[in-house]
Amino acid sequence: MPELPDVENFKRYFDSTGLHQEIDGVEVHSEQVLEDLSPGQLEEELKGHSFASTRRHGKYLFAHVSEDGWLVLHFGMTGDLKYFQKMEQEPEYDRLLVRFSNGYHLAYDSQRKLGEVRLADDFESFVEEKELGPDALDLDREPFREAISGSRAMAKSFLMDQSTLAGIGNVYGDEILFQASVHPRTHVDRLDEEEVDELFDTMREVLQTAIERQADPEAFPDDYLIPHREEGEPCPRCGEELATVKVSGRTAYYCPNRQGSSPRG
Ligand SMILES: [Zn+2]
Fold first, then answer.
1. Which pLDDT tens digit goes with each residue over 100-126?
2. Which of 156, 168, 172, 166 lies closest to 224, judged by CA?
3. What is the pLDDT of residues 143-193, one digit of tens each?
4. How far is it, in rounded angstroms, from Cα 5 to Cα 165?
5. 136: CA distance to ligand 1 center in Å?
6. Residue 259 CA to ligand 1 centre (angstroms)
7. DSSP β-ladder status, 105-110 and 79-84
8. For residue 91, which of 111, 63, 72 has the smallest C-alpha distance?
9. Residue 236 reports pLDDT greater than 70
């Protein structure tokens, strides 16, 4: 599922392909991905305009439509972007296609239709309306400490709560806790100051490393959990068999050796 590093890569891809070209039209192939929006409205808002810039907040990508408004993309479980010229290159699960006057297309592709495409008048008010916390890479150390001190959540839930910090999901949540040696069910109020700082630094480092490596698990450092995040796989650091535990209804993978076999406290 696309999380912050994946969406940051989509942003970079969008920036290098879909900006500053006149939009000829829009084809909606799956209306279910549209939120509070009809295909006609979308076409009307985009046609004749161009995308001037993009922004990312958490797992959302925003493309500024020249003159006014934002196209907002959320990638659900399986979303992706593809820029191409010939229709033979159209991705299989193309839900939404933007046609540019230069003959190229930008497809929003998603095997499962859980993504979300909408329009927003204003970037800040959208973030507010969705009650998104600060982007996980925009958050400074002090507000991170404050968010932790005001929370009684388990570490995994804390990292995944989009209203506290936006961008981290199930997969990167596990990686951050693995690298920081924190059990997923540890209550964050049990972490001492040093551990909180370590968690903050690790969160930034993991997200930045993943972005630099195009969010491609095959390119991740050898001691990363993500490429081994499967039942019965050995820990990439110590060889111990990885364990799982449910946190907030999601399966967390962790190393009982590094992260403890049960949460502290
Ligand atoms: Zn281990």
1. 999 999 999 998 867 899 999 999 999
2. 172
3. 999 999 999 999 999 999 999 999 999 999 999 999 999 999 999 999 999
4. 14
5. 26
6. 8
7. antiparallel
8. 111
9. yes
Q: Determine contact, residues 70/64, Cβ cutoff 8 Å.
A: yes
**Gap between the Cα atoms of 155 and 167, Å rounded:** 15
Residue 221 — φ and ψ, nearest 5°? -55, 155
- Unique residue bearing structure tokens 């800040």: 124
Taking the centre of ligand 1 as the mean of its atom positions, its distance from the CA of residue 260, in whole angstroms, is 10
184 vs 2: CA distance, rounded Å: 20
**CA 199 to ligand 1 centroid distance, Å:** 18
Q: What are phi and psi of 93, to 5 degrees?
A: -110, 50
How far apart CA 92 and CA 81 sit, in angstroms, is 12
CA distance 184 to 203: 14
